[in-house]
Write a structure and sequence with these properties.
With 305 residues, the chain is α/β, with parallel strands linked by helices. The protein has twelve helices and eight strands. α2 runs antiparallel to α11, α8 runs parallel beside α9 and α10 runs antiparallel to α11.
Protein backbone atom coordinates (compact mmCIF):
# COMPACT_ATOMS: atom_id res chain seq x y z
CA UNK A 1 0.00 0.00 0.00
CA UNK A 2 1.12 3.56 -0.64
CA UNK A 3 2.02 5.70 2.35
CA UNK A 4 -0.15 8.67 3.38
CA UNK A 5 0.79 11.96 1.72
CA UNK A 6 0.05 13.86 4.93
CA UNK A 7 0.23 12.81 8.59
CA UNK A 8 -1.27 14.52 11.62
CA UNK A 9 1.20 14.43 14.50
CA UNK A 10 -0.38 14.32 17.96
CA UNK A 11 2.01 15.63 20.63
CA UNK A 12 1.39 13.91 23.97
CA UNK A 13 4.39 15.31 25.84
CA UNK A 14 2.64 17.89 28.07
CA UNK A 15 0.20 15.22 29.29
CA UNK A 16 1.52 11.68 28.87
CA UNK A 17 5.12 12.82 28.89
CA UNK A 18 4.93 14.71 32.18
CA UNK A 19 2.26 12.88 34.16
CA UNK A 20 4.69 10.50 35.89
CA UNK A 21 7.44 13.01 36.68
CA UNK A 22 8.14 12.83 40.41
CA UNK A 23 9.40 16.41 40.56
CA UNK A 24 6.77 19.12 40.36
CA UNK A 25 6.78 20.82 36.98
CA UNK A 26 5.60 24.44 37.42
CA UNK A 27 2.52 25.50 35.51
CA UNK A 28 4.52 28.22 33.79
CA UNK A 29 6.94 25.64 32.40
CA UNK A 30 4.08 23.48 31.10
CA UNK A 31 2.50 26.49 29.42
CA UNK A 32 5.83 27.42 27.85
CA UNK A 33 6.21 23.85 26.60
CA UNK A 34 2.76 23.92 25.00
CA UNK A 35 3.43 27.33 23.44
CA UNK A 36 6.75 26.19 21.97
CA UNK A 37 5.18 23.03 20.56
CA UNK A 38 2.47 25.08 18.88
CA UNK A 39 5.12 27.44 17.50
CA UNK A 40 6.97 24.44 16.06
CA UNK A 41 3.83 23.59 14.10
CA UNK A 42 2.34 20.74 16.12
CA UNK A 43 -1.30 20.58 14.98
CA UNK A 44 -2.61 18.58 17.97
CA UNK A 45 -1.32 18.88 21.54
CA UNK A 46 -2.52 16.85 24.51
CA UNK A 47 -2.30 19.64 27.05
CA UNK A 48 -3.34 18.09 30.37
CA UNK A 49 -5.64 15.63 32.12
CA UNK A 50 -8.73 16.35 34.21
CA UNK A 51 -8.04 13.51 36.63
CA UNK A 52 -7.93 13.36 40.41
CA UNK A 53 -4.77 14.98 41.87
CA UNK A 54 -4.76 12.06 44.30
CA UNK A 55 -3.88 9.67 41.47
CA UNK A 56 -1.93 11.98 39.15
CA UNK A 57 -0.53 14.90 41.19
CA UNK A 58 1.35 16.33 38.19
CA UNK A 59 -1.96 17.13 36.46
CA UNK A 60 -3.47 18.98 39.45
CA UNK A 61 -3.12 22.33 37.64
CA UNK A 62 -5.29 21.28 34.69
CA UNK A 63 -7.67 24.23 35.00
CA UNK A 64 -4.82 26.74 35.21
CA UNK A 65 -3.23 25.15 32.15
CA UNK A 66 -6.36 25.46 30.02
CA UNK A 67 -7.01 28.99 31.23
CA UNK A 68 -3.39 29.97 30.53
CA UNK A 69 -2.97 28.57 27.02
CA UNK A 70 -2.68 31.14 24.26
CA UNK A 71 -4.80 29.26 21.77
CA UNK A 72 -3.63 29.39 18.20
CA UNK A 73 -5.90 29.05 15.18
CA UNK A 74 -5.51 25.63 13.62
CA UNK A 75 -4.08 23.99 16.76
CA UNK A 76 -6.22 21.45 18.62
CA UNK A 77 -5.73 21.15 22.37
CA UNK A 78 -6.86 17.80 23.77
CA UNK A 79 -7.43 16.91 27.42
CA UNK A 80 -7.85 13.51 29.03
CA UNK A 81 -11.02 12.88 31.06
CA UNK A 82 -11.77 9.66 33.00
CA UNK A 83 -15.44 10.22 33.81
CA UNK A 84 -18.36 12.67 33.86
CA UNK A 85 -16.82 14.69 36.68
CA UNK A 86 -13.67 15.18 34.62
CA UNK A 87 -15.74 16.16 31.60
CA UNK A 88 -17.69 18.77 33.56
CA UNK A 89 -14.45 20.29 34.87
CA UNK A 90 -12.95 20.28 31.37
CA UNK A 91 -15.99 22.00 29.89
CA UNK A 92 -15.91 24.61 32.64
CA UNK A 93 -12.29 25.32 31.68
CA UNK A 94 -13.25 25.90 28.05
CA UNK A 95 -11.95 22.65 26.58
CA UNK A 96 -13.39 21.67 23.21
CA UNK A 97 -11.72 18.30 22.63
CA UNK A 98 -11.50 15.41 25.09
CA UNK A 99 -9.87 11.98 25.23
CA UNK A 100 -11.43 8.98 26.99
CA UNK A 101 -9.29 5.93 27.65
CA UNK A 102 -10.00 2.23 27.97
CA UNK A 103 -7.96 -0.96 27.73
CA UNK A 104 -7.90 -4.11 25.65
CA UNK A 105 -7.50 -6.47 28.63
CA UNK A 106 -9.55 -6.88 31.79
CA UNK A 107 -6.62 -6.90 34.20
CA UNK A 108 -5.09 -3.71 32.84
CA UNK A 109 -8.51 -2.05 32.86
CA UNK A 110 -8.97 -2.87 36.53
CA UNK A 111 -5.44 -1.74 37.43
CA UNK A 112 -5.64 1.48 35.41
CA UNK A 113 -9.26 2.61 35.87
CA UNK A 114 -10.53 0.36 38.70
CA UNK A 115 -13.29 -1.12 36.55
CA UNK A 116 -13.89 -3.85 33.99
CA UNK A 117 -13.80 -3.14 30.27
CA UNK A 118 -17.59 -3.18 30.03
CA UNK A 119 -18.01 -0.96 33.10
CA UNK A 120 -15.60 1.50 31.54
CA UNK A 121 -17.50 1.50 28.26
CA UNK A 122 -20.74 2.29 30.10
CA UNK A 123 -19.00 5.21 31.80
CA UNK A 124 -17.59 6.47 28.50
CA UNK A 125 -21.00 6.21 26.85
CA UNK A 126 -22.31 8.87 29.22
CA UNK A 127 -19.20 11.02 28.82
CA UNK A 128 -19.27 10.83 25.02
CA UNK A 129 -22.99 11.56 24.78
CA UNK A 130 -22.67 14.63 27.00
CA UNK A 131 -19.54 15.87 25.22
CA UNK A 132 -21.06 15.48 21.76
CA UNK A 133 -24.24 17.20 22.90
CA UNK A 134 -22.16 20.28 23.69
CA UNK A 135 -20.19 20.16 20.45
CA UNK A 136 -16.91 18.75 21.80
CA UNK A 137 -14.72 16.44 19.77
CA UNK A 138 -14.05 13.06 21.35
CA UNK A 139 -11.14 10.68 20.90
CA UNK A 140 -10.86 7.20 22.38
CA UNK A 141 -7.50 5.75 23.45
CA UNK A 142 -7.09 1.99 23.95
CA UNK A 143 -4.18 0.80 26.11
CA UNK A 144 -2.19 -2.45 25.80
CA UNK A 145 -3.25 -3.19 22.22
CA UNK A 146 -0.08 -5.12 21.42
CA UNK A 147 0.75 -6.74 24.74
CA UNK A 148 -0.30 -6.55 28.39
CA UNK A 149 2.02 -6.58 31.43
CA UNK A 150 -0.46 -8.80 33.27
CA UNK A 151 -2.05 -11.00 30.60
CA UNK A 152 0.70 -11.15 28.00
CA UNK A 153 -0.51 -11.69 24.44
CA UNK A 154 -3.46 -9.59 23.26
CA UNK A 155 -5.56 -10.86 20.38
CA UNK A 156 -6.52 -8.29 17.72
CA UNK A 157 -10.19 -9.23 18.24
CA UNK A 158 -9.95 -7.98 21.84
CA UNK A 159 -8.78 -4.60 20.61
CA UNK A 160 -11.40 -4.48 17.87
CA UNK A 161 -14.22 -5.08 20.35
CA UNK A 162 -13.26 -2.02 22.39
CA UNK A 163 -12.53 0.09 19.30
CA UNK A 164 -15.90 -0.78 17.77
CA UNK A 165 -17.70 0.23 20.97
CA UNK A 166 -15.83 3.55 21.27
CA UNK A 167 -16.47 4.39 17.64
CA UNK A 168 -20.15 3.53 17.97
CA UNK A 169 -20.53 5.94 20.88
CA UNK A 170 -19.14 8.82 18.82
CA UNK A 171 -15.35 8.86 19.18
CA UNK A 172 -14.01 10.60 16.07
CA UNK A 173 -10.55 9.05 16.50
CA UNK A 174 -9.45 5.75 17.98
CA UNK A 175 -5.83 5.50 19.15
CA UNK A 176 -4.23 2.06 19.39
CA UNK A 177 -1.54 2.18 22.07
CA UNK A 178 1.40 -0.18 22.55
CA UNK A 179 1.58 0.81 26.20
CA UNK A 180 4.49 -1.45 27.19
CA UNK A 181 6.30 -1.33 23.86
CA UNK A 182 6.30 -5.07 23.11
CA UNK A 183 4.71 -4.74 19.67
CA UNK A 184 6.41 -5.53 16.39
CA UNK A 185 5.45 -4.47 12.84
CA UNK A 186 3.65 -7.74 12.13
CA UNK A 187 1.54 -7.36 15.26
CA UNK A 188 0.78 -3.76 14.34
CA UNK A 189 -0.47 -4.75 10.92
CA UNK A 190 -2.65 -7.50 12.38
CA UNK A 191 -4.25 -5.18 14.92
CA UNK A 192 -4.75 -2.26 12.53
CA UNK A 193 -6.22 -4.47 9.82
CA UNK A 194 -8.62 -6.07 12.30
CA UNK A 195 -9.72 -2.77 13.82
CA UNK A 196 -10.10 -1.24 10.35
CA UNK A 197 -12.89 -3.74 9.67
CA UNK A 198 -14.96 -1.78 12.21
CA UNK A 199 -13.42 1.72 12.24
CA UNK A 200 -12.48 3.73 9.11
CA UNK A 201 -8.70 3.72 8.67
CA UNK A 202 -8.61 7.53 8.58
CA UNK A 203 -10.00 7.53 12.13
CA UNK A 204 -7.27 5.27 13.54
CA UNK A 205 -4.16 6.62 15.31
CA UNK A 206 -0.98 4.85 16.39
CA UNK A 207 0.58 5.37 19.82
CA UNK A 208 3.84 3.47 20.28
CA UNK A 209 6.34 3.12 23.12
CA UNK A 210 9.99 2.29 22.53
CA UNK A 211 10.71 -0.26 25.26
CA UNK A 212 12.08 -2.80 22.78
CA UNK A 213 13.29 -0.24 20.25
CA UNK A 214 10.39 -1.00 17.89
CA UNK A 215 8.45 2.26 18.01
CA UNK A 216 9.65 3.74 14.71
CA UNK A 217 9.29 0.42 12.90
CA UNK A 218 5.80 0.09 14.33
CA UNK A 219 4.94 3.62 13.25
CA UNK A 220 6.06 2.79 9.72
CA UNK A 221 4.00 -0.41 9.74
CA UNK A 222 0.94 1.61 10.73
CA UNK A 223 1.65 4.07 7.90
CA UNK A 224 1.79 1.17 5.46
CA UNK A 225 -1.69 0.18 6.61
CA UNK A 226 -2.96 3.69 5.87
CA UNK A 227 -2.85 5.16 9.38
CA UNK A 228 -2.23 8.91 9.08
CA UNK A 229 -2.43 9.99 12.74
CA UNK A 230 0.73 9.46 14.80
CA UNK A 231 1.13 10.08 18.53
CA UNK A 232 4.55 10.98 19.88
CA UNK A 233 6.20 12.79 22.76
CA UNK A 234 8.85 15.47 22.48
CA UNK A 235 12.25 14.15 23.62
CA UNK A 236 10.61 10.75 24.17
CA UNK A 237 9.20 11.75 27.55
CA UNK A 238 6.71 9.58 29.36
CA UNK A 239 5.86 6.04 30.32
CA UNK A 240 3.06 4.24 32.11
CA UNK A 241 2.68 3.95 35.91
CA UNK A 242 0.76 0.68 35.51
CA UNK A 243 3.32 -0.98 33.25
CA UNK A 244 6.57 -1.47 35.17
CA UNK A 245 9.66 -0.99 33.05
CA UNK A 246 7.82 0.60 30.13
CA UNK A 247 9.97 3.20 28.45
CA UNK A 248 8.73 6.49 27.10
CA UNK A 249 6.71 7.25 24.03
CA UNK A 250 8.42 7.37 20.67
CA UNK A 251 10.21 10.70 20.38
CA UNK A 252 8.47 13.32 18.26
CA UNK A 253 11.79 14.38 16.75
CA UNK A 254 12.50 10.82 15.54
CA UNK A 255 9.02 10.39 14.05
CA UNK A 256 9.28 13.75 12.30
CA UNK A 257 12.72 12.96 10.87
CA UNK A 258 11.34 9.72 9.43
CA UNK A 259 8.24 11.41 8.01
CA UNK A 260 10.34 14.20 6.49
CA UNK A 261 12.58 11.59 4.90
CA UNK A 262 9.55 9.88 3.38
CA UNK A 263 8.32 13.16 1.92
CA UNK A 264 5.20 13.07 4.09
CA UNK A 265 3.73 16.46 4.95
CA UNK A 266 3.31 17.35 8.65
CA UNK A 267 3.70 21.12 8.92
CA UNK A 268 6.14 20.68 11.84
CA UNK A 269 9.56 22.37 11.89
CA UNK A 270 12.24 19.93 13.05
CA UNK A 271 14.72 22.59 14.23
CA UNK A 272 12.09 24.23 16.40
CA UNK A 273 10.96 20.86 17.70
CA UNK A 274 14.50 19.92 18.71
CA UNK A 275 14.74 23.22 20.58
CA UNK A 276 11.51 22.37 22.44
CA UNK A 277 12.98 19.04 23.53
CA UNK A 278 16.13 20.78 24.71
CA UNK A 279 14.04 23.28 26.69
CA UNK A 280 12.00 20.72 28.61
CA UNK A 281 14.88 18.32 29.19
CA UNK A 282 17.04 21.11 30.58
CA UNK A 283 14.28 21.92 33.03
CA UNK A 284 13.71 18.30 34.04
CA UNK A 285 17.39 17.39 34.13
CA UNK A 286 16.81 14.57 31.65
CA UNK A 287 18.93 13.39 28.75
CA UNK A 288 16.97 13.50 25.51
CA UNK A 289 16.08 10.01 24.30
CA UNK A 290 15.61 11.26 20.74
CA UNK A 291 18.49 10.03 18.63
CA UNK A 292 17.59 12.53 15.92
CA UNK A 293 17.82 15.42 18.36
CA UNK A 294 21.17 14.25 19.72
CA UNK A 295 22.60 13.63 16.24
CA UNK A 296 21.50 16.92 14.71
CA UNK A 297 22.59 18.89 17.76
CA UNK A 298 26.03 17.27 17.57
CA UNK A 299 26.20 18.04 13.84
CA UNK A 300 24.88 21.58 13.77
CA UNK A 301 24.98 22.77 17.37
CA UNK A 302 22.12 23.84 19.59
CA UNK A 303 18.81 24.76 17.99
CA UNK A 304 17.50 27.91 19.55
CA UNK A 305 13.90 28.72 18.84
Amino acid sequence: MSLPRKVTMVEVGPRDGLQNETQNVPTAVKLELIERLADAGMPVIQATAFVSPKWVPQMADHTQIMNGIRRRPGVRYQVLVPNRKGLDAARAAGCNEIVVFGAATETFSKKNTNCTIDEGLVRFQEVCAEALKHGLKVRGDISVCLGCPYEGKVEPAQVARVARALYAMGCQEIALADTIGTGTPGKVRAVVETVAQHVPIEKIAGHFHDTYGQALANTYAALECGVAICDSSVAGLGGCPYAQGADGNVASEDVLYMLDGLGIETGVDIKKLIAVGEFICNHLGHRRSSRTARALTAKYGRHDG
